[in-house]
Design a protein that fits this description.
By secondary structure, this protein is an alpha/beta fold. It is built from ten helices and ten strands. The strands form two sheets. It has a six-stranded mixed β-sheet, with helices on both faces. One of its GO terms (molecular function) is ATP hydrolysis activity.
């Protein structure tokens, strides 16, 4: 089977500092893959390189049969590879509706109205706050808006970068329930998280990054079943 997202030998960094050291990673259609690792492991740098926000030094990124190595971020979005960034990055002075509409600026613009209604069905709280400025919403509501904005582009693969960061335990539970529902609906998801336990509960496969290299790839049960791996890479 050809992977939907196929990353081979990705290297890169900032200035002279190498952050990624030859990363290989694959996500198949309809699959939930967890990318785990501590702060500074290279997770966000990998996301930026895959999405065209930061140039790679070497290696390749293929997505849905297309070579996206070095592609402009607009072309990455047009291909259906959509990222929900760490920290939500909603537009605080725009309304909830305006934030949603911007999600379809590059892709799926002709179905914008229908997709807004779909988002309001998935996230009823966003309908209630349709005219509210995004910056006045709670952290959990902003995260819902960020995910809904990403879904407005009708992604083929959705990258979620630390979606549970800064949320209360109750909202974390809600967030992982939503992510599971997206996967169950057939959407391929690359989940980049520090919440190891809940990520592995819903993932089909997992990768662990350490110092810019993949130290483990395989089934969640294999990772959790090894005392050595759990201690070395997960702190469990």
């Amino acid at each position: 089977m050809t992977a939907l997202l196929d990353i081979q030998g990705l290297r890169g960094g900032y200035g002279r500092v190498e952050v990624l050291r030859g990363v290989d990673l694959q996500v198949n259609a309809g699959e939930m893959v967890a990318l785990l690792g501590s702060n500074g492991a290279g997770k966000s740098t990998l996301n930026k390189m895959v999405c065209g926000l930061c140039p790679a030094w070497s290696g390749s990124v293929r997505f849905d049969g297309k070579d996206l190595s070095g592609a402009h971020y607009r072309d990455v979005v047009k291909a259906g590879l959509i990222q929900v960034p760490e920290g939500r990055k909603v537009f605080p002075n725009l309304s909830v509706l305006e934030n949603l509409e911007l999600g379809s600026f590059t892709r799926a613009r002709e179905r914008r109205a229908a997709n807004v209604e779909k988002m309001f069905h998935i996230f009823p709280r966003l309908r209630e706050r349709m005219a509210q400025h995004a910056g006045t919403m709670s952290g959990g509501e902003q995260q819902m808006l960020a995910i809904a904005r990403g879904l407005m582009a009708e992604p083929v693969l959705l990258i979620l970068d630390e979606p549970s960061l800064g949320l209360s335990p109750r909202l974390v539970e809600e967030m992982f329930t939503l992510i599971r529902e997206l996967r169950d609906g057939g959407l391929a998801v690359l989940l980049v998280e520090q919440n190891v336990g809940q990520s592995l509960e819903i993932a089909d496969r997992a990768y662990v990054l350490e110092n810019g290299s993949v130290r483990f790839s395989g089934l969640p049960g294999e990772l959790l079943g090894s005392d050595e791996l759990r201690r070395a890479y997960l702190g469990l």
